């Protein structure tokens, strides 16, 4: 005699009194009568637990409130007293014989019963592989109205629908090779290795991947060159002579903008911002060769800015083309202040390049429409275009 505590799909024409096609009102009345607690109650679905079985109800949202799918998740589900859960595809189908055609759905209909339709693409998607179906698919048995959710080749849950709610499209029949593959004792490891290989192949398929890689390598090289140049300048300023000059005048002028720190010709490509006025100090001094020179320095160039005309100040002089002059404070951080904007610019260009490459597949059809297509004509065959 069958154990009444077991959830056996063949022992009743309803699951605990529920079956597809019931209205939402009928289902709620039965739930209330049995004093079951609903979880996640909304218009489309909710879940109740009966004994050790979790039932999920999926309703139509077209106004009929019809129960479109009833799914069950439990540690043990039986068919004529034989277990289904955690059985491989081949063993589960043997248990449920005779069952008519066994057809694949390329997703888990217990977890995702009614996925949104995908928009059409220029090229049809590749059919799912045996490994993808066995990793997470559904074996649908129309004769029983049941779908067996498959995870890593084994049954993980069961869904029940009426004929009007059968899947509209199938990925193909369950083959003998798939059934044999599901019996592999190392199937989970095998599927994992196949998934890694497939991911690598998909990554190689992208036509713009090489461009993205080149862009990233170029950005790294550019940043490395900037860092090298900054290190060279740091050493140069550390060895530059410290000279004594004299403040000859207070002036007022625009503060140096961010774009002025960028390498040419980028400053010309960036519009000038609103000028910010600042105090300036005109300092005169003699370089190591004895030539008289002058420099206009901002207050940040000094630890303590000079206060009176004629006051002695220290400047750091770097000979070269062009010669550069800084106050003691600015010379210490000159490499950082001069080259961090360059590195920021490289980062912005790298990001902009990746955004453009990501949008290119979407923009390409539009660009093709804007570019006139060449036509081929033959005077002997006027119909050829």
What does this structure look like?
The protein has 385 residues and is an alpha+beta fold. It has two domains: 24-115 and 128-205, no CATH class; 216-338, OB fold (Dihydrolipoamide Acetyltransferase, E2P). The protein is built from nine helices and 15 strands. The protein has helices at 24-33, 89-95, 130-135, 176-182, 187-205, 209-239, 266-269, 328-332, 334-370; strands at 45-50, 53-59, 67-73, 78-79, 82-83, 103-105, 136-141, 146-151, 154-160, 172-173, 242-254, 277-286, 292-297, 312-318, 324-326. An eight-stranded antiparallel sheet has the order 1-2-3-9-8-7-6-10. A five-stranded antiparallel sheet has the order 13-12-11-14-15. A two-stranded antiparallel sheet has the order 4-5. A hairpin with a 2-residue loop joins strand 8 (146-151) and strand 9 (154-160). Helix 6 packs antiparallel against helix 9. It starts with 23 loop residues before the first helix and ends in a 15-residue tail after the last helix. Mean pLDDT is 85; it is low at 374-378 and 381-385.
Radius of gyration: 37 Å
Strand order in the largest sheet: 1-2-3-9-8-7-6-10
Report the structural category.
alpha+beta
The helix tally amounts to 9
Task: Give the low-pLDDT segments.
Answer: 374-378, 381-385
Order of helices and strands: HEEEEEHEHEEEEHHHEHEEEEHH
The biggest beta sheet, please?
8 strands, antiparallel
Shape: elongated
Keywords:
385 residues; alpha+beta; 2 domains; eight-stranded antiparallel β-sheet; five-stranded antiparallel β-sheet; 15 strands; elongated; disordered C terminus
């Amino acid at each position: 005699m069958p154990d009444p505590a077991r959830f056996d799909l063949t022992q009743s024409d309803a699951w605990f009194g529920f079956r597809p096609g019931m209205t939402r009102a009928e289902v709620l009345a039965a739930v209330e009568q049995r004093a079951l607690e609903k979880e996640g109650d909304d218009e489309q679905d909710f879940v109740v637990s009966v004994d050790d079985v979790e039932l999920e109800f999926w309703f139509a949202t077209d106004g009929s409130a019809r129960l479109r799918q009833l799914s069950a998740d439990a540690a043990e589900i039986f068919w004529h007293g034989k277990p289904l859960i955690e059985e491989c595809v081949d063993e589960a189908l043997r248990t449920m014989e005779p069952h008519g055609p066994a057809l694949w759905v390329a997703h888990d209909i217990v977890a995702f019963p009614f996925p949104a339709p995908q928009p059409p693409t220029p090229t049809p998607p590749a059919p799912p592989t045996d490994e993808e179906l066995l990793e997470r698919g559904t074996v649908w048995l129309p004769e029983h109205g049941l779908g067996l959710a498959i995870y890593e080749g084994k049954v993980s849950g069961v869904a029940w629908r009426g004929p009007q709610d059968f899947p509209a499209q199938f990925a193909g029949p369950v083959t003998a090779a798939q059934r044999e593959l599901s019996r592999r004792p190392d199937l989970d490891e095998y599927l994992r290795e196949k998934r890694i290989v497939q991911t690598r192949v998909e990554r190689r398929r992208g036509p713009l991947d090489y461009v993205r890689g080149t862009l990233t390598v170029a950005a790294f090289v550019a940043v490395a060159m900037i860092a090298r140049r900054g290190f060279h300048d740091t050493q140069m300023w550390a060895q530059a002579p410290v000279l004594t000059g004299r403040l000859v005048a207070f002036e007022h002028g625009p503060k140096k903008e961010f774009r002025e720190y960028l390498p040419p010709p980028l400053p010309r490509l960036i519009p000038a911002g609103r000028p910010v006025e600042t105090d300036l100090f005109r300092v005169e001094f003699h370089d190591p060769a004895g030539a008289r020179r002058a420099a206009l320095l901002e207050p940040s160039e000094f630890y303590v800015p000079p206060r009176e005309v004629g006051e002695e100040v220290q400047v750091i002089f770097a000979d070269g083309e062009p010669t550069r002059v800084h106050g003691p404070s600015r010379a210490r951080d000159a490499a950082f202040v001069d080259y961090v904007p360059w590195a920021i610019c490289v980062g912005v260009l790298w990001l902009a390049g990746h955004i453009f490459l990501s949008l290119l597949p979407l923009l390409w059809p539009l660009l093709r429409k804007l570019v006139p297509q060449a036509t081929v004509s033959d005077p002997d065959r006027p119909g050829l275009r």
